[in-house]
Amino acid sequence: MTKQGWLALMTGALFLTSCGEDKKAETVDPLAESRARPVIQNYAALTSANYAEVVRQAHSLQEAIEAFVANPTDATMAAARAAWIEARVSYGQSEAYRFYGGPIDNEDTGPEGQINAWPLDEAYIDGVEENYDAGIINATEEYPELTQELIASLNERDGETNIASGYHAIEFLLWGQDVSETGPGNRPPTDFVSGEETTRTNADRRRQYLSLVTKQLVEDLESVEAQWKPTQGTYGQAFGAESPKAAVLKILTGLGSLSGAELAGERMTVAYDNKDQEDEHSCFSDNTHADLYNNALGIQNVYLGRYGSVSGPGLSSLVAEVNPALDQKMKERLQASLDAIRAIPVPFDQAILGADNSPGRQKVKAAIDALRAQTDTLVEVATALGITLNLE
Amino acid sequence: MRRALIPLCCLLACGGSVEDEGPEPGEELPGGATTVHDTTRNAFTLVARNLQGERRDAFFVGNSLFNRNWVTAPSSTEGLDGLGPTFNASSCAACHFKDGRGKPPTEPGEKSLSLLFRLSIPGQDAHGAPLEDPVYGGQLQPLAILGVPAEGSMALSYTSREGSYADGTPWSLEAPHYTLQNLAFGPPHPELMVSPRVAPVMIGLGLLEAIPEASLEALADPDDRNGDGISGRINHVWDVEHRQARVGRFGWKANQPSLKHQNAGAFRGDLGITSDLFPTNDCPPAQSACMKAPHGGEPELDARKLEQVTFYTRMLAVPARREADAPDVLRGRKLFRDVGCASCHVPRHETGTVDDAPELSGQVIYPYTDLLLHDMGPELADHRPDFEATGSEWRTPPLWGIGLVQTVNRHTRFLHDGRARSLEEAILWHGGEAEPSRERFRHLSTDERAALLRFLESL
Lengths: 392, 459
Description:
Structural class of chain A: mainly alpha
Structural class of chain B: alpha+beta
Main location (chain A): other
Largest sheet of chain A: 2 strands, antiparallel
Organism (chain A): Melittangium boletus DSM 14713
Protein name (chain B): Thiol oxidoreductase
Number of domains of chain B: 1
Number of strands of chain B: 13
Oligomer: heterodimer
Strand order of the largest sheet of chain A: 1-2
CATH topology of chain A: A middle domain of Talin 1
Protein name (chain A): Iron-regulated protein A
InterPro entries (chain A): Imelysin-like, Imelysin_sf
Shape of chain B: globular
């Protein structure tokens, strides 16, 4: 067809739209500017609010960790652990903004790999049972001086589980190896005390490492937060102005990737299949159940257009316009996933053990299935919005 | 190799009058229905697109094993211990980072992690395999667990090789030299032969495995009966799993008959992890501490895990081409054929039926390889025979995904030892049977060379 032919048709369509009485007979543009723009801008706003909370909680974590390294006691250690658990709440939800090359995981500048990389080979950082001399902390000859630059340069060097930095490095330092069947790792604070009380050599370097790696985490998170601020020249501002199709494709790619390959696949199926706590997301602190829940909550947040006190039109409103039944189904699937994750007995590392008909494994499997179904529905949602979602 | 040179030359001579062809249908999806669309750092890490439902789970499980660091036995990490006693790396992903391509060390003090060295002495065993060095075994392992001496390391230096295009544009290549150093057990056998091998990209391996043997036989021309100067030989290698000689298709010298075999071999050689296929560690008699070191089970890699890793390596997807229909890419594609590259880098294949993998069956694929051995001349020769491969033969490596190596691995080092610093240098190193093609490339204009390289980068 000629270009003129298309133009004529489009004009006809516009004419119909403006004067048509029977709205059902029209083809509704699911991503019409007037409806899609507020959704995109609300997404940018809730992302900004989420990262602001992430940074606030990271600062609290840093304060608690500085108090701990200044005076390592049971009490300061417990406070630092509590701050870590708290910090994971907002971060877990923010993972819904990943997987499309945004500020968090931009190809060249995204710091995700040094923020939340896992699984982590603990012996890469510090000594472990049967090899107390292992790790960067004890490599006094190879790395005489610990610096932020050094730790950043060692992260993911020579192997994808050679993780030197981020939440899980801090988690390992605060909890230690988890060899308990009922609870998390139980590293004593004296691993961080120099002198006669010490339970591990290089306590000074352990304190220094923990302090440096926390500082790095805060800086990395601040850099992401800054790029989502609604101010001139930021990524967030540019995102709010993107074409509806491009922006919604990114939003859905983030949700679908987190829901399917990441959450159902790498974070749950691998652990379920290997029955190995090394494959659970937060294996030292036994916080995996909360991580999973917050990830799924992040997906629901975006679909509904809310985070904390920020609330506005979400993808839901666009879908409801073109296919109310699908919108309803999507909402049910999102809630079903959250319910299924919540039903998994804690700790997760025990739930994955045993025979396939054990209560724990059945619940884990049910959550995986719920996330899979939710991912399939996200693909349907994309189709309904006129977008081809190629989830890898 | 069936295609005669004469028509090729004719094409070159009257190139201007030949109509440029558009892309073949499906050419932009080199992995057929497995093809994924990703141009990021993760481009080589993705699961075959058509692998669906619960079958995808097995991929993720295999992926976790591929990434996981193996640790010294005994350890609390049951099932993942038994590293070494001597080894090259502690995980598969250490060398195949992001399932991508390895490289020689380029910075001072950088470990040679993704470039390893095969060792052998003259002669063959009963099955035609190279004889291992009596002191250092079949591979140099520069690392070892606590209490066991590492075997040694390799010093690398380069000398320049100057040359120029027909239009006068000069080039300078770097020829590598290797010197064994820090040898823990004294001198090796006086006739030791060393072959450097860089870690290859992991994509599309299941599809290559699914190309029928008959297709490779049809491409082979061991005695160059068609007189085009290109032989193309199959390497028949011993398969320890099936206890018989089979067509080799993996490895730089096509010395591995199957992915499972290749993986089990790498577990033993690179990680020091034993399996049912290779139940003993690479500890020659001279290395007593190596022989006596505790192991992590017999074998260390159970059969299920080997299957899971192998499934993963079969199902890594091939990324789609970028800009396959751009005019200069199409021009480069034509030059690729006219120059003669496609004689060995055979673009198109069809996979056969794989019983347990419908995803890999009946796919039209574009790997740009014939999986055959070719004499690549004295400059590239490692002078180390490997089964039926001579010291100057190498298997044609697939080219799919080659344009994404820089994105994924942040380098552009190519060829078996990573000596080429760019795709252009890789072409210029081609000798032996490929020399006439290399010469034709040398005579191309700047524009034509750029178009050919643009085509390669679109793969």
